[in-house]
Amino acid sequence: MLSEMFETLITVEQARRGLGLADWRFVDCRFDLRDVDAGRAAYERGHIPGAVYAHLDDDLSGQVVTGETGRHPLPDDTAMASLVQRLGVDAHTQVVVYDDLGGRIAARLWWMLRYAGLEKVAVLDGGWPAWTAGTRERERTVRSVAPSHYAPSFRRRQVVSTAMVEAWVREGGAPTLLDARAAARYRGEVEPLDPVAGHIPGARSSPCANSLDGAGMFRARPILREAFLSVMPEEGPGRGASVAYCGSGVTACHLILAMTHAGLAPPRLYPGSWSAWCGDATRPISTGPTAGNETSRTT
């Protein structure tokens, strides 16, 4: 048993110390939106020893309801509790989650486990590419683990609904909406996944990719902190209260992870994100480079 607890990021060398320990669980979250079977196939070809696999669509998302949810809604309470138990984790388990996309998918499970009341959850910095650099341990065995009996205590205040966002857009006020998508999608110049381009009125652009360096590693805490503070309002209630969204509520978790790691107040999550917001033609959208300098229109 290792006494150190990891709650945001963990390095490869730190993670290696947990190999083979009963109170550690590694979870492979590799996934490709263009080929939903690719992540599981990659896991089967090789993964961190002892790791189990979690699929974005099957395990980390709930049922899509047209006109109500986004593309990757959160699982309901029963499904989320079942996932936690199937992973064999509880409050004593150090969980390490990883992918091969700089943590963009793994952060979703990191957020979900924390939402379920668990604290000892960390994303492997650099993910699978960092693990396999040089001669790192790997295996092809598909693991099964004994389920846990953990009963989640959901932190419901970490989630906001579409109705709440609508009220903020209509009435103004806190919190600050942070858009984790690529800047071109925020500006409304391109939209590869959803039927309408643009962003939620008043939102500020904070692409999750900006939290990573060229090697797919998270930038140093002071750099992250400075970057996020530069996006937040200089004064007012939005300075310390924020909500993260993206296209479907997945990479927004990456932004939440980065802000938490930087020592800032973690944003709440808008799970429906842009795919839910733009699904109703009566909701306003904005285009343009910055909040406060937008062209508003109705879908």
Note the main attributes of this structure:
299 residues; alpha/beta; Oxidized Rhodanese, domain 1; 2 domains; five-stranded parallel sheet; four-stranded parallel sheet; 10 helices
Describe this structure in words.
The chain is of the alpha/beta class and 299 residues long. It has 2 domains: 9-155, Rhodanese-like domain (Oxidized Rhodanese, domain 1, 3-Layer(aba) Sandwich), CATH 3.40.250.10; 159-298, Rhodanese-like domain (Oxidized Rhodanese, domain 1, 3-Layer(aba) Sandwich). It contains 10 helices and 11 strands. The protein has helices at residues 12-16, 38-45, 77-86, 106-115, 127-132, 162-171, 183-187, 221-231, 251-261, 273-277, and strands at residues 9-10, 24-28, 52-53, 94-98, 121-124, 176-179, 204-205, 242-245, 268-269, 284-290, 293-298. The strands form 3 sheets. It has a 5-stranded parallel beta sheet with strand order 1-5-4-2-3. The chain has a 4-stranded parallel beta sheet with strand order 7-6-8-9, covered by helices on one side. Strands 10-11 form a two-stranded antiparallel ribbon. Helix 4 (106-115) crosses helix 9.
